[in-house]
Design brief:
The structure holds 2 protein chains of 2 kinds. By secondary structure, chain A is mainly alpha-helical. Chain A is built from 10 helices and 3 strands. Chain A is 76% helix and 5% strand. Chain A has a 3-stranded antiparallel β-sheet. The longest helix of chain B is centred in the C-terminal third of the chain and has 24 residues. Classes of the chains: A mainly alpha, B mainly alpha. At the A-B interface, helix 1 and helix 2 of A face helix 2, helix 3, helix 6 and helix 9 of B.
Chain lengths: 181, 177
């Protein structure tokens, strides 16, 4: 009888499965809570996002700084390369000086050809005899030519005749640097 | 199919986990309710079970245990803790049980069932009650109960023996009265 009662009791309980009244609401609630907790479950995702943002920000600032630095460097380099600024070359004092120089050169018959000033090895020899002081100056001019205009200097060395103008003196040979110093 | 759901859930896909919740809610509720006998407490435990499962899915190894066993493990241990912490159980009068004529089966609602179990298992310890529900009502194998509860087979058999004996005595006494 005891066994019958026990078995009946157990069988009754087995047959009756407990039912949750509001199962849909319950499931929705569970998923809502999981949606909230999933953020706290993976805090490293948030940390990674912040870290990535910081990294991006630092990279952008670094890039900007690098750009500015290199721009500054480039500007500095350009300025250094352009060691003979046009303003100096074209300064009024220089123009005046070069004009005086041309005037001086034009007084030497050895350098004149069809009302133009020219230089060649033979003419320089003749100048030494005609006006030694001026010939020293022309030799200095040849030094400028050798540095600043190697093509003209090579032509001169090969025996060619080089025409001299105020423009060439100022722009090509950089005579103003010597004059203004 | 289930493997895919677990894999996706492990990768943080809430939709995949929603399907797991959908599938196992009633099973878990059934077991937990039969242990704690209070619907709201059972719902809370099932909810906490799913949240804990979601948070610890990466620790779940499908090669070691079935998903149901893993979920039952979480739920049963929570229910066991509730039983242990429950200091004042509602004392049901024997009249509730004597009113039960025998086979009411399908007509029993949750409250009637809770009262029936409570009155019959009143004198059981939490451990005996958990073993009785899992082994005799849920018809689980001893090995599975061992895995779920973490207790030894001997503990389970001993506790089940005592539980059955006490329930039989209680049923007999209630019928005689």
């Amino acid at each position: 009888m005891e066994n019958d009662l026990y078995e009946q009791f157990v069988n009754d309980l087995k047959k009756c499965r407990p039912q949750m009244g509001d199962e849909k609401d319950f499931k929705r609630n569970v998923m809502r809570k999981i949606g909230v907790s999933s953020v706290s479950v993976r805090p490293w995702i948030g940390i990674m996002r912040v870290a990535a943002s910081l990294l991006l920000l630092v990279s952008m600032v670094g890039y900007g700084a690098m750009e500015y630095y290199t721009w500054d460097k480039r500007l500095y380099t350009v300025r250094n390369q352009n060691a003979y600024p046009l303003t100096e070359k074209s300064s009024w004092e220089c123009r005046q000086s070069v004009r005086e120089l041309i005037k001086e050169l034009s007084t030497a018959e050895a350098l004149m050809l069809n009302n133009e000033i020219v230089i060649s090895k033979s003419r320089l020899h003749r100048l030494q005899a005609e006006n030694q002081e001026l010939s020293y100056f022309v030799e200095d001019l040849m030094a400028y030519m050798q540095i600043r205009s190697p093509v003209d200097y090579a032509a001169y060395q090969s025996g060619e005749t080089i025409q001299i103008t105020s423009w060439k003196l100022r722009k090509d040979y950089g005579v103003c640097d010597g004059i203004n110093k | 199919m289930e493997e895919q759901l677990i894999y996706k859930s492990k990768n943080g896909d809430p939709n995949a986990f929603a399907l797991i919740v959908d599938k196992y809610t009633s099973y878990l509720f059934s077991v937990v309710f039969r242990i704690v006998n209070v619907e709201e407490e059972a719902k809370d435990i099932v909810q906490e079970t799913f949240i804990a499962a979601w948070q610890n899915l990466n620790k779940y190894d499908s090669s070691k245990s079935k998903l149901t066993t893993w979920l039952y493990t979480i739920a049963t241990r929570m229910a066991f803790d509730v039983l242990r912490k429950r200091k004042e159980q509602v004392e049901l009068t024997d009249a509730v049980f004597t009113g039960h004529s025998g086979c009411v089966s399908a007509q029993m609602d949750n409250n009637e069932m809770a009262e029936l179990i409570k009155s019959a298992t009143k004198s059981l310890s939490p451990m005996q009650k958990v073993v009785f529900v899992l082994r005799d009502i849920e018809s689980m194998e001893v090995s599975e109960v061992c895995e779920i509860t973490g207790w030894s087979a001997k503990q389970i058999k001993d506790n089940l023996y005592v539980a059955r004996k006490q329930i039989r005595e209680r049923l007999k006494r209630l019928v005689i009265e």
